[in-house]
Amino acid sequence: MNEQRNETQSLDCAVAQDLLPLYNDGVVSSATGEAIRRHLEHCKACRREYEDLREILPVRAEDFGTTKERFIAMERRLERRRIFRVLWVLLAIAALAVGAWYLLTEPHIWPAEKTVEEIVQTYRYQDDRGTHFLILYRGGYERHGNSASGETTVSQEGGTCMIQEDWKTTLLGNSVFESSGAYTDVCPEESGLAGKEPVKKLLYQGKVAWTEEENGDDSIPDYVPLYFEFRKSDWTGSPEARGQMSIWVDDGYVEAKFKDGKLILWSLDGELLYEGYPGGEKEEK
Fold first, then answer.
1. With left for phi above 0 and alpha for psi between -120 and 50, is residue 94 left, alpha or beta?
2. Is residue 225 helix, strand or coil?
């Protein structure tokens, strides 16, 4: 008995710390447990080690007195872990599904820089709504798949008006550089710039498209006012729209189709190429 007491009192710190996890779980013999308990009463270092151990160990001896209770508690913890693991998997699947749905249904999500290769001609036209600029250019943008769209921003600093188109395209599909002749029009007054000083210089995608000094006296082709007349009908939703106009910059001509069947063709510089009724007669409406 005395030998056991002496062995208890002379328990080494290294041995005691190795036995702490077993002591915490209550699986050591009663004699060993008593030895560790007495050692902890007199050893601050091992007592601090045991306190730290109790904070991280999931099972504590004093919480569950019997092996059965500790086993039940362990099963409950494992079940909670399984539930959390399933929830994380479901959340990951839901996130992937939402991402896939967004990629497949949202077409305009990727910037596509628009390039203006050449400003062919810019015409200034004034009507009761303000000053309009019709810009004929050659350029393009890089797209993916079959979908792309653009948003136009008009700003002004002093007498310089700047037009910037930011294009977006899909991430899906092969990359294709869409190059073609096109046109755009802008009215600074209708773009929230009413009250600004008159435009003396026009920039489109960073390129000079028109200046008062070089283009202020340019003659205006007959198709320009007609274009804005047709466009006004489109903007106002008027059922009295007279027809439809298309400007084919790459092919070098302008086409106006009227509701009564009349067709007028001009070159880009305004030369009349054709005016008449291709079918031979005016259509009655």
1. alpha
2. helix
